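# step 3/5: fold
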Amino acid sequence: MNEYETTLSPVDAVAEVQGLYGAFSFPERLLQKIWQRGDFDSAGARTADGRALKILHPGRWNHLGGPDFAQARLLIAGREVTGDVELHLHAKDWAAHGHLTDSAYDNVILHVVLFPCAETGTRGAGGRTIPVLCLLPLLHHGLEEYAEEDAMEQLAGRPLHHAQEILGALSHQELDTLLRAQAEQRWRSKVYFARERIKRLGWEGACHHAALEILGYRFNRAPMLSAASALPLNEWASGRVDAGRIFEILAETGRWSLQGVRPLNHPRLRLRQYAAWCISRPNWPERLRDSSSLRELAVSQAATSTGDWRRKVRLTDQRARLQDDVCGGALSGSRLDNLIGDGFMPLWTAETGLELEAAWTGWFAGDAPAAGVRVLRALGVFDGRVRPVAQGPIQGLLGWMLAHESRLQGQGAPPTGAGLDKILPRKLP
């Protein structure tokens, strides 16, 4: 986990954190979302005074006044307790926000804080000591990655007509420069986050966590990461993991989000696919690191167009080799493309030091937002065989959207938008 310098705005409950590309905001609302989803290593949770903590139910998210979560169920040192949970960025915010003298907080059974503190407990009403849990050491990602993912979620499903109108005013050269710069920034960010993951978990653990996270898609990545933390790769490879039972255990705690999930993306199916994958290729992270396909893509020369480059490197054949050599044929289609583009490529570059940016830029789009693809087609970025739908321009569009939304909200550029003023034409708002 990186060291961050922080300052707190008590009015907005937002921490200003120093990250890879400068300062970024981490709001208390995002901390609440992480708790509600269980997007951290709950198996390693212990209170600040050293007692084992098991979260039976995180509670009901309260968007009104009072404690953040109501009717949570916890096991603290083997004793089940039910009550409210309050979250803050810093332990000192409990007193700063006046909770000690507010009777609405008399039933709080756990004080969750983001940043480490010296206190082993929080003083409640009548001198009662409330257990404290610090989340930072338990997080699956760095704060910057959580902030970026949250920003991407805010964009999901948002109409893109404004993007087409604004970007349509650019010349083809200006648009190409903009998309390339934003895509490069996003690639560098992905490699950085992959490197941090390897530092925390080692190569095998990083691959294992990334694979299950990507198989969880956007809505179920948190419970998939819980499964990865609870059961290391060697357990899956041994054939002892009952994927159906894992699904049911997590379902009992209400962890899965199944509304609107297509049958092919159902987490029960994805868990079974991963179990089959690990049994077929028990040493798949080692196979990935030694992949001749990725090595060939890393040294491939640029071509006049994405279509020409794909034909030159036989990209479809390379994908088929990765599908078999690394995944044992357990995955296919857009989920395989996402796994390779968002998981394998950044991890491989972070581990080997060999550059895959060009290959990632021309890689298949996977589960790219359909609206984004339509915008880029309308702008002439994609036109079929010569300039097929590819990862790079889509990531460039997403990066521009993040930066544009941030500028409109007056928050400054997000992590992926550093240096945006240098590449945005002055005529753009």
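# step 4/5: annotate
The longest strand covers residues 79-88.
# step 5/5: archive (pending)
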